[in-house]
Specification:
about 325 residues; mainly alpha
């Protein structure tokens, strides 16, 4: 692999994010963000999930990779431990919020565009399947434990609703095991593929719009830079080292490593706007969220280059 796929990823993905940021910052009404976010997250991206699982998921894949949710739990525990240790070292007064930012990453929306740029064919389809098997449990916990933490314990999350991507992933797994994909006409699969690609790239524009709602008031730059260093560089190093040491299948190792190098979930900005939260935590969360994405312009290409060296046979 050359540097060009990474440059294409940066230009397409972060270019769309910057375009969304500028557009919603300057002239597009913020009220459009909620329906657009609902459209992309609850419809277009689930279509992509359905397409990939119909193509590539079956009983053989399930039996081979059934343990992925346990890896999710283990990585969550590492993120919690890292966030707790970092919070103690920096003596933060916002430990719950710090735990949320360390634990829940944007492993889906940012990982898929990279996979689309550097992988092709059946390898790409299986990689996306494995990725969503990994983030299924993350989605559930993000909108329960994540809400509780990012609001500083001020909001108890609702437990009677499930995130749409989680539901679609579960349904897609059932349909894949049942072999429904082989009965779907090729033209329909092509349409699903197109809709899914529109969703995964379009959501980058929406993500930029969500970040544009962040208003920075008080920024203690030293604390923010320490966070970005720990979150974008140190924690991924720990994850990648552990994955390499335990040596799962090459493709799974690549996918897991990719999922763990991402900045915090952008949904935290939505949660702080939507839910009641304790005083002062916006000044803590927003700078760390925004600067972690800025730092990702450097950290993601660096880590992808390292992954290329670790898994050259895949690329």
């Amino acid at each position: 692999m050359t540097i060009y796929p990474i440059l294409q990823f940066i230009i397409k993905t972060f270019g769309l994010m910057v375009l969304g940021y500028i557009s919603f910052r300057l002239f597009l009404p913020k009220m459009w963000l909620k329906p657009l976010s609902t459209l992309f997250v609850n419809f277009l991206i689930p279509v992509m999930i359905l397409h990939k699982f119909l193509l590539r998921f079956n009983m053989e894949v399930l039996l081979q990779f059934w343990y992925i949710p346990f890896i999710t739990l283990a990585f969550l525990a590492i993120g919690i431990a890292g966030g707790y240790l970092f919070g103690k070292i920096t003596r933060t007064g916002f430990m719950k919020e710090n735990l949320a930012l360390f634990t829940f990453l944007n492993s889906g929306y940012l990982s898929v565009p990279i996979l689309l740029e550097i992988m092709k064919g059946d390898t790409l389809d299986l990689a996306i399947v494995l990725l969503f098997m990994y983030i299924m449990l993350l989605l559930l916990l993000l909108w329960s434990l994540g809400v509780l933490w990012i609001t500083g314990g001020e909001t108890r999350p609702k437990t009677n609703t499930l995130p749409v991507p989680f539901v679609i992933t579960a349904i897609s797994m059932i349909l894949g095991v049942a072999g429904v994909g082989k009965y779907v006409p090729g033209q329909v699969m092509d349409i699903l593929d197109l809709i899914g690609k529109i969703g995964i790239y379009g959501v980058m524009f929406v993500l930029g719009g969500i970040l544009s709602k962040i208003v920075l008031k008080k920024v203690r730059i030293r604390g923010v830079l320490l966070f970005v260093l720990a979150k974008n560089f140190v924690l991924p190093l720990i994850f990648i080292s552990l994955i390499w040491a335990f040596n799962p299948s090459k493709l799974l190792g690549w996918v897991l490593s990719l999922a763990c190098i991402m900045p915090p979930a952008n949904n935290f900005a939505v949660m702080l706007e939507k839910y009641r939260h304790r005083a002062g935590n916006e000044e803590f969360v927003y700078p760390r969220l925004l600067y972690s994405y800025i730092g990702a312009l450097i950290s993601i290409p660096v880590w992808v280059f390292i992954l290329e060296l670790l898994y050259p046979e895949l690329l």
